[in-house]
């Protein structure tokens, strides 16, 4: 008998398909069930300025990542270079995105599982301060995205070459003040997730992929694998190979034919990546990094604004590549343009599609390790395992 359970408390739309015999789970598959949105086809024929606007709609939570990865690809194709101050302002925008996304994942998605509740609403009755802490952190993240990006969701101020306009210095003073106010909340988050007892589980993955940078707040043209290999973003599709599968609307990505890990556990050093449930601890540490880096940048711009908001962009025929660490892992955009700056080809590889293989293999591993686990208990463990990745 096949049973399909729709997952709750995940960013996208997903389900776990279970094969049950005599009340026991015999096989399991992860299915991402969103309708095909065909963004790569939608952007064909569009001018380069339109593309970041369109593809940022791929995700409401991490629109900043999609918009910036798209912008990086366009700038790469046209040979656009922006000053350091514009790069720093983009980093502050990213800090806001990570504060909002990670606080949501930690407190509203994962913590109910770890505390034994069915939802954050149910958990809030006994732990109201935890939920309030999440909302305070999220509020600051949303404020940063609105101030710099133009709106909390799908802000239009970020563009190829920089920003359409810059906030006043007082706006950065307010951001710095708000970040200082939540610093205790962020540190208490790290303390909390360090103190928790996580389920004991060893992941099946051998490889991890991350940007070759100090942390998610930095941008890079190179990527690194946990086995020591390093490659330029233009070779991304030579390493990450996608294939369609019948049971999911998202493509499955593999490296060397194997599942691989992206996201907080692949980025944060000093946290064991062998247990996927440690993703929450890595996510909590990144929350602290976001607050600290964001504060440093905001304090700088409170006294010294960028000299320009946007550099000149001249379209030309060519192909560009953009990579960025989104909250859930490495995000890849690639576009080919004609001489007028119209897109003739596009490819986008999301963190969720890259995580699908490792999540699926770990679910099957769970079924093999616990062959006598009753369906109801397996369902709980499987949902908790998937949510640890925040897909």
Task: For this entry, give a set of tags.
single chain; 391 residues; alpha+beta; four-stranded mixed sheet; three-stranded antiparallel sheet; 14 strands; globular
List how many beta strands DSSP finds.
14
How are helices and strands ordered from N to C? EEEHHHHHHEEHEEEHEEEHHEEEHH
The tally of helices reads 12
Overall 3D geometry? globular
The computed structural class is alpha+beta
Strand order of the largest sheet: 8-7-6-11
Strand content: 15-25%
Report the mean per-residue pLDDT as an integer. Answer: 91
Give the N-to-C terminal Cα separation: 26 Å
Walkthrough of the structure:
- The chain has 391 residues and is α+β, with helices and mostly antiparallel strands.
- It has 12 helices and 14 strands.
- The protein has helices spanning 39-42, 50-55, 63-78, 84-115, 120-124, 128-149, 169-195, 236-239, 264-267, 279-301, 351-369, 375-388, and strands at residues 2-6, 14-21, 24-32, 158-159, 162-163, 207-211, 222-225, 230-232, 240-243, 252-255, 260-261, 318-326, 329-337, 343-349.
- The strands form 5 sheets. The protein has a 4-stranded mixed beta sheet. Strands 1-2-3 form a 3-stranded antiparallel beta sheet. A 3-stranded antiparallel beta sheet has the order 12-13-14.
- A hairpin with a 2-residue loop joins strand 4 and strand 5.
- The longest helix has 32 residues, at 84-115.
- The mean pLDDT is 91.
